[in-house]
Amino acid sequence: MAHQQHINPLADELNSVLAPCIAGRLLSDLGNRLYFPKGIIAQSGEAKQFGKTANATIGMAVKDGKPVMLSALKDQLPGLSPAEAVAYPPTAGNEDLRKLWLDAIKQKNPSLGNAKITLPVLVPGLTAGISYLSDLFLDDKSVLLTGDPAWDNYVLIVEARRNSKLVGFSLFNETGFNVESFRAAVQEQAKLGSVRMLLNFPQNPSGYTPTKEEARAIVQVITETAEKGTDVLVWCDDAYFGLDYEDSIEVESLFARLANAHERILAVKIDGPTKEDYVWGLRTGFLTFGSKGMTDAQYDALIKKLMGAIRSSVSCAAAPSQSLMLKVLADPRTEGEKLEFRKMLEERYAVVRAFIDSHKNHPVLSALPFNSGYFMSMKCSGVPAEELRLKLLHEHGIGTIAIDPTHLRVAFSSVDTGKLESVFQTIFDVAEKMLSK
Ligand SMILES: Cc1ncc(COP(=O)(O)O)c(C=O)c1O
Fold first, then answer.
1. 425 C-alpha vs ligand 1 centroid, how far in Å?
2. What is the mean pLDDT of the chain?
3. 205 lines ligand 1 (CB under 6 A)
4. Would the CB of 127 count as within 6 Å of ligand 1?
C-alpha cells in the first residue's frame, strides 16, 4: 500500500498562508510538509523574554546566567564570551548579524531601492542554502535550469539528493552570455507551467559575469515570462559577489532587479561571507527572499518553512562563526584588508588576461569568456581534459580541475601572482605537445 503523506497541522497552516502567492505554488512535496514546531526552540524563545525567575527550557548547562565553558576553549577563543562561543544560536541565525547583512545587501545593491525583501536567514554556508532551497522547491517532478558548464555540486544536490533534474542552457556564444540559448530554455520550461532557475555570477567554473546589457536582457526574459502568466523562481548564487575586474560588467546582483519586478517572480539571493570576506571554512551563508506583493505574513510563513528545513537537518549553524563574523564586520581594519585581497586577485586576473589575449589560436585550448571571480576555464579540443589534467599534475606538479571531458578549470585565485605566467605557459605547451603525439 502506498505510504500516506502526513501533513502536520502547522504545515497546513503555513501552506494556506502561502497558497495565494508564488511561493506556495512552487513548493515541492517536502516544502509542503515542512513546518517549524512550536516545540523546544519556540518555547525557549518565549522563555528568554518572559522567564525572569528561571529559564528551564533549553538543553544547555547554565551557571549564574552563563553557559559553562571549558578552559581549553576559553584559551583558544579569548575574544568571545561563553554565550558567544558555546550557546545555541537561533535557528535562523544571530539576529544582529542578519540585520547587518541586510544593510550590506542594500548598500551593495542600490537598485533594490525600497523593495520589500526578507531579513536574510543564516545557513551554514552557501551550499547549505542551495540545498535548503532544493528541499523547499524541487522534487522529482521539477526541473532546475542553470548555465552549462556549472559548478559540479549543483547536480549532486539537485539530482542525487533531491531526485530532481538539472537542465543546462548553453552559457556562451562567440561574444559572451548566450541570451538566445537562455531564452529558448526558459520558454521550453514555461510550457510545463513554471520555471525554476539557478543563476551564478561571477560564475564557477567560467569566471564570467554578464555585461550591463546582458544583465538587462536576462531580466527582460524573466520578466516577459512572468508577464505571460508563468511563475518564475530565480536563485541568484552570488558566492563571488564583488570580484568584478572589467568596467563593462553589471556589478549589482540580478536579485536587485528581480526582487520587486513582478508577482510571478520569486527571487532568492544566496550569498555570504565565504568568499566575499575570505572566510571559507567559517560556514556562514544567507538566504534572502524577494517577490513583489508578497505580504509580511507570507514572508514569515516562507521563513518558517526554511527554518523547518534547518531545524530538521543541522538544527542551527555554529555559534563561534556567527560571533566572529559580527566582530569581523564591525572591525575598522576589515574594509581596507578586503580591498588589498581584492587587489591581489585583480592583479592575478590581469596576468591571466594578458597571457590569454596573447595566446589566441592555440590548437587545443580556447578560453571561455571570463572577467570576474576566482576562475577561468578553457575548452580543450582534440585532447581530453582529464588526460591533460593528469599529465600536468604528475609530470609538472600543476593541479587543475577537469570540469567535464572537454573543459579544464584553473583557479588563478589560489596561485601566487609571480607563478601564474609560467603555470599557463606549461599548460599551453603540454596541451600542444599532447596533440602532436
Ligand atoms: C558557485 C558557488 N556557490 C557556492 C559555493 C559554496 O559556498 P560555501 O563554501 O559557502 O558553501 C561555491 C564554492 O565553491 C561556489 O563556487
1. 29
2. 95
3. no
4. yes
- Which of 330, 354, 372 marks a domain boundary? 330
Q: What is the pLDDT of residues 175-224, one digit of tens each?
A: 899 999 999 999 999 999 999 999 999 999 999 999 999 999 999 999 99
pLDDT tier for residue 340 given thresholds of 50, 70 and 90: very high
Q: Considering Cα of 413, then 417, then 423, then 428, what sign does the dihedral take?
A: positive
Ligand 1 neighbourhood includes 285 CB (under 6 angstroms)? yes
Task: Verify that 424 and 315 share a domain, yes or no.
Answer: no
Pair 97, 136 in one domain: yes
Asked, as a colleague might, if the bond just before 205 is cis with ω within 30 of 0, I would say yes
How far is the C-alpha of 69 from the C-alpha of 387, rounded, in Å?
52
Say how far apart CA 198 and CA 205 lie, in whole Å.
14
200 C-alpha to center of ligand 1: Å?
Answer: 10
- State how many domains the chain has: 2
Distance (Å) from CA 19 to ligand 1 centroid = 32
Average pLDDT in the 258-274 region?
Answer: 98
Q: Are 343 and 336 in contact (CB under 8 A)?
A: no
Q: What DSSP state is assigned to residue 263?
A: T
Domain co-membership, 97 together with 195: yes
The three cell numbers locating residue 292: 513583489
Range of the domain at 411: 335-436
Query: How far is it, in rounded angstroms, from Cα 249 to Cα 251?
Result: 6
125 lines ligand 1 (CB under 6 A): yes
Q: Would the CB of 149 count as within 6 Å of ligand 1?
A: no
Which amino acid, 14? L
Please give the average per-residue pLDDT across 339-359, as a whole number: 98
Q: Which of 330, 355, 388 is the last residue of a domain?
A: 330
pLDDT in tens, 248-265: 999 999 999 999 999 999
Cβ–ligand 1 distance for 274 under 6 Å, the answer: yes
Lookup: cell for 412? 588563478
Position 2 scores a pLDDT of 58
**Whose CA is closest to atom 16 on ligand 1?**
204
> Cβ(203) to ligand 1 under 6 A?
no
State the residue for C-alpha cell 596576468.
Answer: 351
**302, 240: one domain:** yes
Q: Which atom of ligand 1 is nearest to the CA of 284?
A: 10
Which position has the higher pLDDT, 71 or 51? 71
With residue 325 as reference, give the H or E element that holds it: helix 319-330
Tell me the pLDDT band of 1, cut-offs 50, 70 and 90: low
Between CA 134 and CA 233 the distance in angstroms is: 12
CA 392 to mean position of chain CA atoms: 31
pLDDT surpasses 80 at 40: no
